[in-house]
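Input chain follows. Return structure tokens only.
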Amino acid sequence: MLMFPVPVFVALVIGYLALRTFLAGGRPLLLALLCLCAAQSLMVALVVFYSVEVLRPALPVTATLVPPLAWVTFRDALLAHQRIRDDWLHLSAPAFTLFCTIFAPLTLDIVVPGIFLAYGVSLLLFIRRAPAMPLARLEAGDYPALIWKALAWALIGSAASDVLIALTYLSGRADWALVLISVSSSLALLFVGLLSVSPDASGPSDDPVESPQDPAPDKHAAEYPAIVGKLNALLEQQGAHLDPDLTLSRLGRRLHVPEKRLSAAVNRVTGENVSRYVNRWRIRHASKLIATGTPITEAMLSSGFNTKSNFNREFQRVTGVSPSQWRDHEETRVVLNLSENLPALPRPKRARQTS
């Protein structure tokens, strides 16, 4: 009877995501990550469930390609478009695994989970310290960081499952090991694939590879109020915040201000990151439209939002009520202080009384 184990199903799902990403013209590194996850899951199925032993020595090597490729894909998606020649050092992880496979196979139970753990922890620490993600769509708010944090935890979870699998083999419970390999490792790969193709996991693909950098933004603290003033003028006079593909990188170029300095200025002057600050402008625009009778979906699209989930989340954060509540209720407990020079929001229309 033909077996159809979990890793085969996972390989098919991730393969479908890879095909869809390719047809949509997605980023090459993202496509490579998806193809690698699909291939790894298929190889696990062939070795564990169909006894294709010739592939067994390659499994740890291909597995340790996943964490460094996830790291490079993260940088390419949200920080700066990567060039392969700049990231060749990450090949040392699978290269070391190959060395251990040939000369010290007993160390693989430590090496493979160690690589997954190292990249997962590094990704978490980097996201925690990173002042901004220049290529992330500002519409998405904090979601890009949350998505990649979840992906980092998926790498850490995969490391934990590898350790558990090794322990089950050492204890002589090979039947348990098969279940763990089938479920935990495959689900970790599926989790990586699903997270990486989320619309909020990356920004526009047409931003330039290089952008001006400022190595020490705190030296320019005296300029921060003026920078925020220029930003407010750009948003108010040119409506830059209404562009749904707006990123920190694009804002910096339009203001002729390095990304890090712009991010530091907004954070220091307003107490918010650039994404939240720009989305506050967007919600202000949308709430005024809704208050004058514009349909919610039309107001959302006219205010720089592409997805309803992002719009509803940011509207609730900024106003304290949902868009429909803002539309239907005259009295709201809302304070939208964008700038001292900006007028207050108008009250929403009174909801019509029905008998």
